[in-house]
């Protein structure tokens, strides 16, 4: 049992990074009733994210899953800015979703720590980096935690709540509250490379790439076999394209460095990333999306 929670009520939530994950997190946070500020480096990235959130909410209304009132209120609660320091200074809770590069995340956490009020909790959506290492760049490691969301954020039910070495019970409790307001289920995981889901997923995706490289079967047939034979909702190669092959590669490189040889990234995946074939977001990955 946790002691009675001793965190301040969370009203304002900032999301840093308006990419695939950040915009989804901003959407579910606004739907959960928080005043949300979405931060990125360029205005045009923010405008794009804002439009995608609007489109998702509209689709939710058309499908009868979101009420028009919730749609309007969520849009009302959502702001965007390129001024990270200003957003941080008004935040009770921050969720970082910038690319999976440890030096970038540490730099951002150091800066957030400088600008956020002392009570603010700082969460990272890292897929596999060390929460403890990220927390060490701040003076509040007890208030740093991992919240690992899944893509697409507005549809996927789970968040892995990840404890770093010094994450406090109050920080875990506050993050559980935020997750519940976002209408998500949680599992608590102790920090370890790749957590539960990324480690298994990266291995399946890597193995599928090795099969493609070895000519075991076509991409379509590898995906079809895993979907229809093993009952996965998506094939590992189409999932890699959805997640982004650069993000997938970074997770594998980290698992390889920390857990050993069996996680060595498939050379074909490395080649695709070098060619800029990153998946859906660049129009081509394993599959070609240019005409879709
Ligand atoms: N894509 C997934 O399926 C998935 C799932 C779970 C977790 N994650 C993790 O979420 C994080 C983000 O992944 P993504 O797929 O959304 O990446 P993405 O590349 O789609 O988005 C990252 C965004 O961060 C922005 N950014 C870069 N530097 C910044 C800075 N200094 N300040 C503010 N914004 C900055 C970029 O402009 C970009 O819009 C990564 O750590 C990734 O491992 C991704």
TrEMBL record:
GO biological process, one term: fatty acid metabolic process
Xref: Gene3D superfamilies: N-(1-d-carboxylethyl)-l-norvaline Dehydrogenase, domain 2, NAD(P)-binding Rossmann-like Domain
Site annotation Important for catalytic activity: residues: 148
Assigned keywords, A-Z: NAD, Oxidoreductase
Membrane spanning stretches: none
Location of the 3-hydroxyacyl-CoA dehydrogenase NAD binding domain: 13-191
Pathway(s) annotated for this protein in UniProt: Lipid metabolism; butanoate metabolism
Pfam family, one: 3HCDH_N
Positions of NAD(+) binding: 17-22, 40, 100, 105, 127, 151, 281
Domain 3-hydroxyacyl-CoA dehydrogenase C-terminal: 194-289
Record flagged with keyword Cytoplasm: no
InterPro entries referenced in this protein's UniProt entry, alphabetically: 3-OHacyl-CoA_DH, 3-OHacyl-CoA_DH_NAD-bd, 3HC_DH_C, 6-PGluconate_DH-like_C_sf, 6PGD_dom2, NAD(P)-bd_dom_sf
GO molecular function: NAD+ binding; oxidoreductase activity, acting on the CH-OH group of donors, NAD or NADP as acceptor
PANTHER family, A to Z: 3-HYDROXYACYL-COA DEHYDROGENASE FAMILY PROTEIN, 3-HYDROXYBUTYRYL-COA DEHYDROGENASE
Similarity section: Belongs to the 3-hydroxyacyl-CoA dehydrogenase family.
Name of protein: 3-hydroxybutyryl-CoA dehydrogenase
Source organism of this protein record: Desulfoscipio gibsoniae DSM 7213
């Amino acid at each position: 049992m946790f002691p009675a929670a001793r965190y301040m009520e969370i009203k304002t939530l900032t999301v840093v990074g308006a990419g695939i994950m950040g915009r989804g997190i901003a959407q579910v946070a606004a739907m959960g009733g928080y005043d949300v500020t979405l931060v990125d480096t360029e205005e045009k990235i923010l405008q794009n994210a804002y439009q995608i959130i609007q489109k998702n909410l509209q689709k939710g209304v058309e499908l009868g899953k979101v009420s028009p009132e919730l749609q309007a209120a969520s849009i009302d609660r959502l702001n965007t800015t390129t001024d990270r320091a200003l957003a941080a200074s008004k935040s009770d809770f921050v969720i970082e979703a910038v690319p999976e590069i440890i030096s970038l995340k540490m730099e951002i956490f150091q800066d957030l720590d400088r600008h956020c009020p002392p009570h603010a909790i700082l969460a990272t959506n890292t897929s596999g980096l060390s929460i403890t290492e990220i927390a060490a760049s701040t003076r509040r490691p007890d208030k740093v935690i991992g919240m690992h969301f899944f893509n697409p954020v507005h549809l996927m039910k789970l968040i892995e709540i990840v404890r770093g070495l010094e994450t406090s019970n109050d920080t875990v409790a506050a993050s559980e509250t935020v997750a519940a307001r976002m209408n998500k289920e949680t599992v608590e995981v102790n920090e370890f490379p790749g957590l539960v889901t990324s480690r298994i997923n990266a291995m399946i995706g890597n193995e599928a790439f090795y099969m493609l490289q070895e000519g075991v079967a076509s991409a379509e047939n590898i995906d079809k076999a895993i979907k229809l034979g093993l009952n996965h909702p998506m094939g590992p190669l189409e999932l890699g394209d959805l997640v982004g092959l650069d993000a997938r590669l970074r997770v594998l490189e980290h698992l390889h460095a920390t857990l050993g040889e069996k996680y060595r990234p498939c050379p074909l995946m490395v080649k695709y990333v070098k060619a800029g074939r990153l998946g859906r977001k660049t129009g081509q990955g394993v599959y070609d999306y240019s005409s879709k």
